[in-house]
Every structure is written in C-alpha cells, then in structure tokens.
Write a structure and sequence with these properties.
transmembrane helix; transmembrane; alpha+beta; membrane; 2 domains; coiled coil; about 50% helix; Helix Hairpins; 5 helices
C-alpha cells in the first residue's frame, strides 16, 4: 500500500498532468483563433483607404456615355466576380457605343478573363473569372468603340484641296478609358453567383426596375399628404396674423400684410410641388403596370423555353 506521502505525491502528479493538458489545449485554441484572425479578411484590420467606385452615381470619362455601377458581387468558391452596369447617354447622343472590358487585380501584371454575359440596351452584366480569394482590389477597365455620328462622318470627307481630312479620325482612335475599382470591403459575397441565360438576366433587370419604381411610388404616396399638412399650417398662420391686425399700428399692419403675402406665395409653391408629385405618381404607377406585364411575358417565355 502507498504511504500517505506517496499518495499525496501521486495525487499531485495527476493534478499537474491535467493542468498541463488543459494549458496546452487552451494554447492550441488561442493559436488557432489567432491564425484565423490574422488570415481572415473579415477580422483583419485594414487601415488602407477604401477605393471603391461609388454605386448608383454617373461616372464620366467616356465620349458618348456615362457609366453607372449598380452591383458588384463575388463568389469565392467559383472565383468569379459579377459587375452590373448601366449606361447613360451624354448630350442626347442617338447612337449606342460598343463597350469593351478588361480587368486586373491590383499589383498584378496579367489581366483576368472577362466575359460580357448579358447586354441589352443600356444594361450590362460582366463576369470576371479567376479572382483569388485573397484579392484586395480589382479594377474593371471600360473603353468604348462608337461608330461615327453622321456629322462626324461628313467632316471626314475631302477638303477643298482634295485631301482627306483625318483629324477627327485620329482623335477617335485615341481610346478613352474609365477604371471602376472594386474593394473587397465593399463587394458583396454571393455564394449562389453563377452564369444565367439571357431570359433570366432580363427578368432580373425588370425586377430591379420594378423594385425601384415601387420604392418611388411609396415615397410619393408618403410625400403628397405632407404637402397638404404644410398648406394647412400656412393657412393657420395667415389666420392668426389677420386676427392680430386689429391690435396693431398701421406700420405693424403693413408688416403683417407682407408676412401674409409671403405665406400665400409659399402656399402656391407647395401646391405646384404637390401637382408635380401627383403627375409623377400617376406616371410611376403606369410604368409599374407596364413592367409587371413585361415581366409576366418574360416569365412565360422562360417557362416555354424550359419546357422544350
């Protein structure tokens, strides 16, 4: 049998062994969490300035259109990015330029593969392939190839000396570019991101426009009653000023008349704004009906194609 001294020693060793195991387990857990913290973009502190191109803002730089960045997403599993753009005509141009796209990761020499997966009217959906999970910033380089307008075509004719004028053409050959910047801190991660067929992209575009129109209708329906409240308030102020005139001097009455006139002008301005809002609301509701009909037609077309 163990002596009392030996028993205490054995108990101490067992306790000490458990403490060591607990210590090493805790150390491993801390190291694992530290590794995750240092390697993950989500946890990593980054004091570099965010250079993300703004969403939903006209971006100048091209000759014939402004670009509007609508959405920028990334699927880390498939290493693809998807950029949704719209174009806006500059100065009432009536012809549509052809846009070209290149992409490059910041600090890299080689370009990334770019596909225009959808283009209809002013809508573009571009996919960038081979983007690594540890990317920091990706630049989408956009340039345009526009056919010459009729006026420019005429100006390329022969001059009085019989020589061909090429000044305009040389200017046209100087390709302008716009770089859209995508910062990992501002790009939405979408694990379901994939290439769709044309009908699906058309549906997405219509649904997005419908959502914007629905929001516009909601805002107008909230704003119109507010105008009535402003008019009521101004009329109430006019009534109070009129009531006080019987206790005023002639000079004070003249000042009151001026205040009343100011409020009457304000009432007319509010009525004008209310009328504009009501017109916009009517147009927005009409547009919403058209978009819903268009979406239904696209969905029928999609179902027909799917059933074949």
């Amino acid at each position: 049998m163990l002596s009392q001294k030996e028993g205490k020693l054995l108990s101490f060793k067992i306790t000490k062994g458990k403490e060591n195991k607990l210590y090493y387990a805790s150390l491993i857990s801390v190291l694992a969490l530290l590794t995750l913290f240092l390697s993950s973009k989500s946890f990593m502190f980054d004091d570099e300035p965010i250079l993300q191109t703004e969403y939903d803002q006209p971006i100048p730089g091209l000759d014939h259109v402004h670009l509007i960045l609508k959405k920028w997403e990334y699927n880390p599993a498939k290493k693809i990015m998807q950029v949704q753009l719209k174009t806006e005509e500059v100065g009432g141009e009536m012809f549509e330029p052809k846009l070209k796209f290149k992409a490059k990761e910041k600090g890299e020499v080689d370009f990334l593969k770019v596909d225009v997966v959808f283009h209809q009217d002013e809508n573009y959906v571009v996919q960038i392939k081979g983007v690594p999970a540890d990317y920091r910033e990706v630049g989408l380089i956009v340039s345009e190839e526009a056919e010459s307008s009729p006026l420019e075509t005429e100006s390329l004719g022969a001059n009085e000396g019989g020589e061909i004028s090429v000044g305009k053409q040389e200017q046209k050959d100087e390709e302008k570019k716009v770089v859209l910047r995508g910062d990992y801190r501002k790009i939405k991660e979408n694990k379901n991101l994939k290439k769709k067929n044309k009908i699906e992209y058309v549906e997405d575009s219509i649904k997005e426009e419908l959502q914007l129109k629905h929001t516009e209708i909601e805002n107008l329906e909230k704003s119109i009653p507010i105008q009535d409240g402003i008019i009521d308030q101004l009329n109430d102020e006019i009534s109070k000023i009129k009531a006080n005139k019987k206790y005023q001097t002639e000079t004070e009455k003249a000042e009151s008349d001026t205040e009343i006139q100011k409020r009457k002008i304000s009432i007319e301005e509010v009525k004008r704004q209310k009328g504009e809002m009501e017109t916009k609301l009517k147009e927005a509701k009409e547009k919403e009906k058209i978009l819903k009909k268009k979406l239904e037609e696209q969905q029928r077309e999609f179902n027909k194609e799917f059933d074949q």
